[in-house]
């Protein structure tokens, strides 16, 4: 976590990150990461309790941001350390208050929640295992329970957890005081990267003034962004399940691998049930395959009359621990589908699939990146209204709750790591590389069983023309393929086709371009020539299918101009139509998808080119359609009618919601 201070008077460790090193000097050993990361579920042997609501919150406003560390705030209730405020969880903390210093705060903040555990969680011989799990917290987290450190985690978009059984089982009155120290500082070696710039000109800036410099175009929201959950398992439990599927017209094979922790299982049985609850296949043992006759395949939205078909795989384990016979049960949704990439096609279940979708952000008024169920459901209703069959998790993994709905609704996902803004040469070094490999392990471990996830994306718009990018991306992509051989791997580029050093290693070329916006602004007439050349150059060089992974224009809602001028709704419409004309020619050859940037307007850092954020959404930040949304809707439904196996009565006016 140490970094040199960009813009400082001399070399040294970044003061904001010194507290991390100090913590390591006087705290107990850090808990190792779990082997498995099964999503917490209520089952006959497991209970879960969400800890959402109001938490106590305190930002460390001391000059060095280190008072909380030096005074060990975790050793007593946070309210005893000084003033605290209420903070909703899950939510970003930036926009909750009227405090301008909190909106752009960089450094340590502290959260705390006191809960009482049910007595049954602490009883028995052996007693149940009690686990504390965070869906995500941005960016660097250290967690204590009753003053005892239980876990440390780096990264803002993936879950982490700790077995806290030994800490809580001796607690008076089953009290569980959870304290979280959270630091949103980004360095050249984090994902995403960033740097702290110290302003040393005392004639222009106050003492110790600094800013966080980032190379990505969305606001660096921070906080506990996803649900915090306490859950239980038996002392011997199912730790991980891995599923892959193959299929033909009449038979499917579901290969599985189950790992158990705490004891050798006396018995391990599996039952696969269809949506009516009928058992269609059974198995036993930790490794094997289930044979399913006449399977219902998992199909994308608009490719089948019953998209997103999910079976339920029930795994049941019995194990002897001491004198007790313990049983653990876990149920995993399973979609049967295959993915295959040729030199010019992307095949799902052996049929050509064309990505007509969007890029998104986890972003909304007030709650920032905090998980919000009404917003999630609204977004999926808009996606289906639009006729979108896919999206990319730009530019970080999205919440498991969102991914669950993708599985259930048949929305295809390109699952992207937080590797955005990798621009500096030092961000391609071994330290950054090792962290990137660890992040891909966490991402694959979380999402490996999801049928909606058809491709991994390891980065977005890196400086892939730099010499070290070749080794860097060769290594990250090979590592990801070793973790999951069943899916293709890509990264999203905006580099010149002749200079990109990472492109040789991807399975699908994903290209971002903003013709007539960032390049030749205002000149729509250059799009046909330049976009055609873009596709032809990439395909001639690599002979791989291509997705236009970003394109678009800002439009201010209600701003109109005819003839179209930049920032008007008409210009956004006109740009889309120019791109679409070229897409229609090239999708007959090797272009396999188009993802608009962006689904909705979103917040960014303040700047002279950003008026309350990025306005490239086809919907406003409040999810109201701009004129471009109707252009895209008509197009996507037309494409769906051309390629669907459904009756041609589907129109953009059909009621699917």
From TrEMBL:
Where's the Glycoside hydrolase family 2 catalytic domain? 339-640
**GO MF terms held by the record:** beta-glucuronidase activity; carbohydrate binding
Please name the PROSITE patterns in this protein's record. GLYCOSYL_HYDROL_F2_1, GLYCOSYL_HYDROL_F2_2
Name the catalysed reactions: a beta-D-glucuronoside + H2O = D-glucuronate + an alcohol
- Record carries keyword Hydrolase: yes
One GO CC term of this entry? extracellular space
Which EC class is the enzyme in?
hydrolase
Q: Has the keyword Glycoprotein been applied to this entry?
A: yes
Q: Which residues form the Glycosyl hydrolases family 2 sugar binding domain?
A: 50-234
Recorded coiled-coil stretches: none
> EC number(s) on record?
3.2.1.31
Where does the Glycoside hydrolase family 2 immunoglobulin-like beta-sandwich domain start and stop, copy by copy?
236-337
Listed under GO biological process in this entry are: carbohydrate metabolic process; glucuronoside catabolic process
* Function according to Swiss-Prot or TrEMBL: Plays an important role in the degradation of dermatan and keratan sulfates.
- Assembly, per entry: Homotetramer.
Q: Which family does it belong to?
A: Belongs to the glycosyl hydrolase 2 family.
The identity of this protein, by name, is Beta-glucuronidase
Q: Which organism is it from?
A: Drymodes brunneopygia
Query: Which gene specifies this protein's sequence?
Result: Gusb
